Amino acid sequence: MSRENRVLSDTDDEHTDEEVHDVGSGDEVQKEGQLQTNVIEDEHPDFISADADLAAEFPDDADVVDLVHLKVLALEDLNLPRFKNLKRLYLRQNLIESIAELEVLPLDSMEEIDLYDNRIKHISKSVNLFPNLKTLDLSFNKIRTIKNVDNLGNLENLYFVQNKISKIENLGTLSKLKNLELGGNRVTEIGPDDFKGLTNLEEIWLGKNSIPRLINLHHLKNLKILSIQSNKLKKIEGLEELENLEELYLSHNFISKIEGLEKNLKLTTLDVTCNKLTKIENLKHLTHLTDLWASDNQIDQSFESIGEELGQLPEFETIYLEGNPIQRKNSTQYRRKLVLNLGESFQKIDATYIRA
């Protein structure tokens, strides 16, 4: 489900005028006894000369305008002022560089603006003019700084996946924000006040950054999903005040021990795939845990000890342990021994159900 693995468009936006030479008044020419159609090839398929024509199909009273993957170059050419009732604008996968023209949209009615995969480098002040905006997607652009979003008091979903952002900032006034996606950026730390004011945040996605420590998360009292895969974490820490946390994704880090989850009693899913773990431990208190993903670690312990840790969990269903010594050394008995040592609710080993 993740926004963190999507690929940027590599469409070129540099164009030159094409010269077309007149070959005659007719549509067909005779050459060497064969009848040929005179076709002038388009040598610049990226260039669309009249962006305004792209929006012509939408009536003036449209509440949704969807112009996806059409090589739109500039908002100014779309005649956006005529859409007085617009609520949602989708301009994904185009060639837009400037979004200052957003200010011509109906400020009070706009609820969603989607500019995923364009060539935007700066968040214009015009973005800050929409008091009722609920969703803003600026993923897969070239943005370096989070700014001009502090007036979006009703914003619930904010996407900055795959940009060039190095600092989490200027978000403290977004008190209604529920979902924040910052995967695939250049964030190197979580500062003391980075999440201050985001008391209603339920999901945060920080995969593919360079964050070394899980700290300064105490403001996120209502957080349910924390994804911080593919960073530089060495320890599970700083989660004591996240008592509503349900899903924790920590794969592809450098964690050597399962710990620090004493207060996270609502946890249902724990992903520690591809770390440096040697043992499954400190989980027996998580009575709502259903999924443990721990493939590609260095886990080498007895099946009985795994049963002691997980066997009494009433809702536990799924375990992933492939790629660990415990699986490689016991390939013929691996599944049977797990079934014998885990509880009645247990259903799946490494993506395969154990019973019909």
Mean pLDDT, nearest integer? 89
Terminal residue distance? 27 Å
Subunit organisation of the chains: single chain
Number of strands: 16
Q: Over the alpha carbons, how many angstroms does the gyration radius reach?
A: 27 Å
Strand content: 5-15%
Question: Which runs of at least 5 residues are low in confidence (pLDDT < 50)?
Answer: 1-40
Description of the structure:
It is a single chain. By secondary structure, the chain is mainly beta. It is built from three helices and 16 strands. It has helices spanning 303-310, 325-328, 334-341, and strands at 28-31, 34-37, 64-66, 88-90, 112-114, 135-137, 157-159, 179-181, 203-205, 225-227, 247-249, 269-271, 291-293, 318-320, 348-349, 352-353. The strands form two sheets. The chain has a 14-stranded mixed β-sheet with strand order 3-4-5-6-7-8-9-10-11-12-13-14-15-16, with no helix packed on it. Strands 1-2 form a two-stranded antiparallel ribbon. Strand 15 and strand 16 (352-353) form a beta hairpin. The protein is elongated and about 70 Å long. The two termini are 27 Å apart. The model is unreliable at 1-40 (pLDDT under 50). Its main location: nucleus. Keywords: Leucine-rich repeat, Nucleus, Repeat.
